[in-house]
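@channel sequence for tomorrow's demo:
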Amino acid sequence: MSMSGEGVSFAGSIPAEYDARLVPMFFEPFARDLAARVPAGASRVLEVAAGTGVVSRALLARLGPDASLVVTDLQQGMLDIAHAKIGDDPRVEIRQADAMSLPFADHQFDVVVCQFGVMFFADRLAGVREVRRVMAPDGVLLINTWGSLSDNPIARIAHEEVARALPDDPPPFLTVPFGLHDADTVTALLHEAGFTYVQSSVVDLTGTSHSAHGAAWGLLCGSPMYTQLQERGVRDPRRLVDAVAGRLTREGGFAPMRLPMRALVFAAQ
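structure tokens (generated this afternoon):
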């Protein structure tokens, strides 16, 4: 969850909280799954909406010594953390880039990877077409999207508790990342962008946090939810964090907290 669509920004203190609390719980498990799907022998790889680099690191563990990986994101604050985590691997180039206008020549990459980013594209069709432009004719696109909130109880609980606390104007953020959960819709988007072959699968994993409180803090303070709460006058989110943590504890345990997660994965050529 790293690109910024309309009204969605990962800035200020959010990237650090996101990386510390949400990446281990939400993103590392699916990053390993997505990286494992990269074709053996891939040599020119682009990552779009890379966030703090969790998929980047999984890709580097899989890619050969002569491969290259270009890591991009719209948010410089996210990329600063990615650079610190990745280090000075000679295979890697890290640069700020907008998925709507990628700064690369046509047909430059044989694999493009995007984890949980398409939902945040300002124009999804334009963004996917731009990705296709920079891919080699026989290249592979690998993306994943979240399942619905009902299939992802950690996020659902946060969404419900915040809406209960702010019924007149509930923050809508979590409806964005969890709003592109229909496989037929995503498949149709990829076909419209020019991909002729699309394969989809459902991946069910477990989200684990060191504590329910840490998970709740990450959800409310490590995402644009934090900005939306501030806009609604919530300057100190601790009471809301406690409410979310209480629900998470009842459903997934306190320390550690474990609950199921679901995502959809798409491979397109």
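heads up for whoever presents: The chain has a mean pLDDT of 95.
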